[in-house]
Task: inverse folding
């Protein structure tokens, strides 16, 4: 089977202090960090064993907090990127950590989903990190949340990045009717795909690949189908991919997040993102 696994361990801490985030400047205890590390090592070991079963795997790390400031995430990405049966390993990151460790990764299989947080880092520092990734031959997308207070910073970031670096904007959805037509045009000028993200997709009963060949793995091995449906569908280490995989129509009323709606076949988003859909690089 060809499967995509989102992975989130016990980590809930970050070196940044974004005002809208519950993990900002939170420090995990040594015990929690040790648990996160052990869980991640178990996961990497399990992925390694999938070669014998003929599975091909892509992994996306979306930690609650920042992973790359911890050695075990860097080691996991390095190891996974070098496994023959792993097609891709990507991570959501604030891109604050040093990048010299990526000397050891397979750059062709490593990708970064880099989120820019205006107010937490200088544009020049963030862009320098992006340019280092580029020089290292590692694919990445850059993006941010489209809150009105960030509009200027987002435009400036777009101008500072090379044209061929895709920049996405996540629509701010906490307030209804937040955007005017003018705002939408402004954000479309930065991210041509912005309206795809601003939409909420009616999904109840619709086809979705999550739970079939896309899984959402929690640190201890519990598996849900996606970011939104809280139902546990099995256990990675007990059931394996074959045991977990089942065609499951969506049970949620709508799908409103990129990491979910890209798996709805009816949207045909491979046509927009090609082989770079996991790390969100449009036009590739
Ligand atoms: S960088 Fe991400 S995880 Fe860290 S505080 Fe900001 S939003 Fe939260
Ligand atoms: S909420 Fe989205 S990702 Fe989850 S099952 Fe429904 S369509 Fe799929």
Result:
């Amino acid at each position: 089977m060809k499967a995509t696994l989102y992975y989130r361990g016990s980590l809930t801490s970050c070196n940044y202090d974004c005002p809208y985030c519950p993990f900002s400047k939170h420090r995990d205890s040594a015990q929690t960090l040790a648990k996160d590390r052990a869980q991640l090592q178990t996961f990497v070991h399990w992925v390694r064993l999938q070669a014998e079963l003929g599975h091909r795997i892509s992994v996306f790390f979306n930690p609650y907090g920042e992973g790359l400031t911890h050695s075990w995430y860097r080691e996991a990405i390095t190891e996974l990127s070098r496994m023959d049966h792993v097609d891709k390993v990507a991570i959501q990151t604030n891109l604050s950590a040093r990048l010299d460790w990526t000397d050891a990764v397979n750059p062709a299989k490593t990708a970064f989903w880099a989120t820019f947080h205006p107010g937490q880092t200088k544009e020049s520092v963030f862009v320098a990190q992006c340019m280092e990734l580029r020089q290292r031959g590692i694919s990445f997308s850059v993006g941010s949340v489209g809150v009105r207070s960030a509009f200027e910073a987002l435009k400036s970031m777009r101008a500072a990045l090379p044209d061929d670096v895709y920049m996405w904007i996540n629509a701010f959805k906490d307030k209804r009717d937040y955007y005017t037509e003018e705002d939408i045009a402004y954000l479309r000028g930065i991210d041509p795909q912005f309206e795809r993200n601003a939409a909420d997709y009616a999904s109840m009963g619709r086809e979705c690949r999550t739970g079939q060949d896309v899984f959402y793995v929690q640190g201890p091995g519990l598996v849900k189908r996606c970011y939104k449906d809280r139902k546990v569908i099995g256990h990675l280490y007990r059931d394996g991919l074959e045991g977990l995989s089942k065609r499951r129509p969506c049970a949620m009323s709508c799908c409103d997040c990129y990491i979910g709606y890209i798996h709805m076949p009816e949207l045909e988003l491979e046509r927009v993102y090609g082989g770079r859909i996991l790390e969100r690089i449009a036009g590739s």
